[in-house]
Amino acid sequence: MRNYTISPKKIRFLVNQLILMVNIGWLSIAFMNKTMAVRLVHEDGIIQWLQFLFLLFTALFLLRIVLSDRDLYENKTLKYGFFILFVLTLVLAGEEISWGQRIFNITTPDFIKQVNVQNEITLHNLWFFQRFRHWLLLIFGLTGLVLIHLKTHNHKIHNQFVFFYPPASFKLAFYFIIISGVALEVAYISLSTFPGATVKLLRFWAGRYSEIGELGVSITAFSYAEHKFNLLLYENNIGQNE
After folding, report:
1. Which of 19, 25, 74, 140 is deepest in the core (most CB within 10 A)?
2. Which class for 83: exposed (0-12), middle (13-18), buried (19 or more C-beta within 10 A)?
3. Spatial CA neighbour of 213 closest among 168, 182, 169, 171
4. Phi, psi (5° rounding) for residue 126?
5. Residue 100 buriedness (CB in 10 A; 0-12 / 13-18 / 19+)
6. How many whole angstroms separate alpha carbon 35 and alpha carbon 29?
7. pLDDT tens-digit profile of 186-204?
């Protein structure tokens, strides 16, 4: 079976140069052409579809890892762990495009309209979740940094869990993701403390920028899944050549 993979060099490009360029690029556009910047992160805009595609391919790679348990590894912890990541990625991908609601012109039931900000069949747009949805960015970024710290400083880690840890080269991506989440949290706190037109504008742009953070999550997730698949292939080849 031919295994398509992306080279480690290209993976590092995705999680470092690409995410850096996306952040600087969008912020530059926001200063020069606010209408275009908003259009890029709008519903069904290019940023949202890029998020969906990266998450979709992430899920496919995770599924390949799960289904390759007999060919590349024999470890139930890895198999079940990556299966959970596969399911979570599918949920995120579905949420990004509202589970195809706008594509297939599915009508939102009335009971969902009453509790959903965008009147869509989504979890992340529920009223009670709106204030905290960006915390997922913070959790994602902080978890990544903590795991990298534990691994690089040789903390005692069970061997079965070491494989799940992200490589140190992902650190920059995690920082950018955290920044996007912090920006929105600061805007929320400022809005509740100093309500006014200026702070509302800050909240608006922080919300738009969080979409760039979500794109960073999808790029990082894809790079992570591809990196782990490459690593399993490499370890399997080493084992066969011994």
Report:
1. 19
2. middle
3. 182
4. -65, 145
5. exposed
6. 9
7. 999 999 999 899 999 999 9
